[in-house]
Write a structure and sequence with these properties.
Blueprint: H1 15-19, H2 22-29, H3 33-60, H4 65-82, E1 90-91, H5 97-128, H6 132-135, H7 140-157, H8 159-163, H9 175-184, H10 191-210, H11 216-231, H12 238-242, H13 259-291, H14 297-313, E2 320-321, H15 323-331, H16 338-353, H17 363-377, H18 380-389, H19 391-406, H20 409-431, E3 433-436, H21 442-446, E4 461-467, H22 472-482, E5 491-498, H23 504-519, E6 523-527, H24 531-539, E7 547-550, H25 553-562
Helix pairs in contact: 3-4, 3-11, 3-15, 3-16, 3-17, 4-14, 4-16, 5-13, 5-14, 7-17, 7-19, 7-20, 10-11, 10-17, 13-14, 13-15, 18-19, 19-20, 20-22, 22-23
Length: 563
């Protein structure tokens, strides 16, 4: 019997299984007042965390704090209502600060909104085409590297408000150009801003250690606003910089859609799409690990796409799944997506009722919040583990990190993925081996349909056992071994019993071997080939009578013995 022939083929998931929002799943399971209470508590907890973060991320991105809140309200509601994860919290994310700020600087605010709109369409299309399964193939060193790089850039972008610096001109975007300008502006340090930012960081870290369940960021920002207003500190605030925030949502409207403008912002939209897909699905995976649930990746991408379109219609910017807020949602005891929807409604309530209070928040306090966020983004234990794991992972990590900091995020991900793929191919090729004329073991004899013992090894018969994946990375080394047949041999046996996969390059190697064997009058036996492997070989012309297919090595030896 051929290996794996008795296994039933896996059934393909239905459209309902792929795209039904988790909200419908939770409601079908039964939703009562107790579950609503759990979701309300979790939603309020997440809203308290998201309130200062949404405004801080927006300001650091070159947008207004009101746009940050709009993004969290509209995007957060749609991600939870339509998404494929029970616990995902959507909104503006620190990982996008670099890309959003660069887009605003290059294309203006209307270009950012258009790029967000186009990114939403691309994300929805990616989900509809079922590409969500492939996003998770990004190597771990790449995600760690670009996350650490983004953290460095975020912190560098906050040095000016942290220190209250006054710059002669516009602040450069690239880090290599930014640092000399900031260094030259050090004599303009504002002691009050330094005190506010340092106090904000101290309160956040102190509460995290002493009262971990308290909303440290919100408390720190509220205390900073009270101190700045009560003491009359000479620091920039949301009110002085942006005139406060409105207490209503803007009316939805389509961004200006012209072909020239679309082509202009398309690279930014592609970057938003790539990072948004990676960040949101990574966040969903983290939630799965914390809860034991499973998200629907393609449904999640469709929801992220709709959320970005919705955010752009209301003047917001990029929406994605946020790992920290999603983890907070899980720890707060959320039951399902209603918690994320309520988190958006609580933020809307703040915007409607308490918008004037936001005018007193110092920018230095929000910079302190982002400094803590940047530090937490760097996965210190993961970096240490990857550096110890070997030179290959360290190179991928380092290249991704450096390209993120000094070049471009999209370029960093592409190069990191390419390096990770080459590293994987190298490792897989070393794991594939071929054994020649190894002594037969009991398992080989048991495979014979006639039973009994296999004949003694004939020196005129060469047996090769291929173990591991026979693919293009290993084809050269295996081909050089298989090619060592001569006219002194009567038969050649190639055993695939320990080979789980064969690609076209490997099949082409066997096809060349079959031609050489035929020219030299050597009979070629292929044994132990699973149906998939045999199908690939037949497709590439490895067919009888040039090749004889048998279930096991023992069968080939017996056939040659009796020939």
């Amino acid at each position: 019997m051929y290996p794996n022939l008795s296994k039933a083929p896996p059934t393909a998931p239905t459209l309902a299984e792929l795209y039904t929002p988790k909200l419908l799943t939770v409601l079908r399971e039964g939703y009562d007042l107790a579950r609503l209470r759990r979701d309300a508590v979790a939603g309020l907890t997440v809203a308290i965390v998201a309130l200062p973060l949404s405004m801080a991320i927006a300001i650091a991105s070159g947008a207004t704090p009101a746009q940050g809140l709009v993004t969290a309200i509209i995007g957060g509601f749609l991600v939870s209502a339509l998404g494929g994860s029970r616990y995902q919290i959507g909104g503006p994310a620190g990982a996008f600060i670099v890309l959003v700020a660069a887009t605003v600087a290059q294309h203006g605010m209307d270009g950012l909104i258009l790029a967000t709109f186009l990114s939403g369409l691309m994300l929805a299309a990616a989900g509809a085409l079922r590409l969500g399964t492939f996003v998770k193939f990004i190597p771990f060193p790449v995600t760690v590297g670009f996350t650490a790089g983004i953290a460095v850039i975020i912190f560098a972008s906050q040095i000016k408000p942290l220190l209250g610096l006054t710059l002669a001109g516009a602040e450069p975007g690239p880090l290599a150009e930014k640092l000399p300008v900031l260094w030259a502006a050090l004599p303009t340090v504002t002691p009050a801003a330094v005190a506010v930012s340092a106090g904000t960081v101290a309160v956040i870290l102190g509460l995290k250690a002493a009262r971990p369940h308290w909303p440290g960021m919100l408390v720190a920002v509220a205390l900073a606003a009270a101190a700045a207003g009560g003491l009359g500190l000479p620091v920039a605030t949301i009110g002085s910089q942006f005139g406060g925030i409105p207490n209503t949502l803007p009316m939805p409207h389509l961004p200006a859609l012209t072909l020239a403008r679309v082509v202009e912002v398309l690279p930014a939209a592609l970057s938003f799409t790539l990072l948004g897909a990676i960040e949101s699905l990574l966040s969903a995976v983290v939630a799965d690990g914390m809860t034991g649930r499973r998200h629907r990746s393609n449904c999640e991408l469709v929801a992220q796409g709709v959320a970005n379109v919705g955010s752009a219609l209301f003047g917001g910017f990029c929406v994605t799944g946020t790992i920290a807020r999603t983890a907070t949602n899980v720890r707060a005891g959320a039951h399902g997506p209603v918690a994320g929807m309520l988190h958006a409604l609580f933020l809307l309530l703040f915007m409607l009722l308490a918008a004037p209070l936001a005018a007193y928040i110092p920018l230095a306090a929000l910079a302190g919040v982002l400094a803590v966020v940047a530090w937490n983004m760097i996965e210190k234990p993961a970096i240490a583990t990857l550096l110890r794991a070997g030179w290959g992972d360290a190179v991928v990590l380092g290249a991704t990190f450096l390209l993120t900091v000094f070049r471009d995020l999209t370029e960093a991900i592409v190069v990191g993925f390419a390096l990770g793929s080459v590293l994987f191919i190298h490792r897989m090729s070393r794991a594939t081996a071929v054994e020649t004329n190894s002594p037969f073991v009991a398992e080989d004899r048991a495979d014979s349909p006639r039973g009994g013992e296999a004949p003694a090894q004939d020196p005129g018969v060469v047996v090769y056992r291929i173990s591991g994946v026979f693919f293009f990375g290993a084809a050269a080394s295996i081909g050089s071994v298989l090619d060592r047949i001569s006219t002194d041999h009567r038969a050649l046996v190639v055993d695939f019993a320990a080979c789980p996969f064969l690609d076209s390059t490997g099949a082409n190697t066997i096809e060349g071997l079959a031609h050489k064997a035929a020219r030299q009058g050597v009979r070629l036996y292929v044994t132990g080939a699973a149906p998939d492997i045999r199908r690939v070989l037949l497709t590439h012309g490895v067919r009888p009578p040039q090749v004889i297919y048998l279930p096991a090595v023992a069968d080939a030896l017996e056939a040659e013995h009796t020939a």
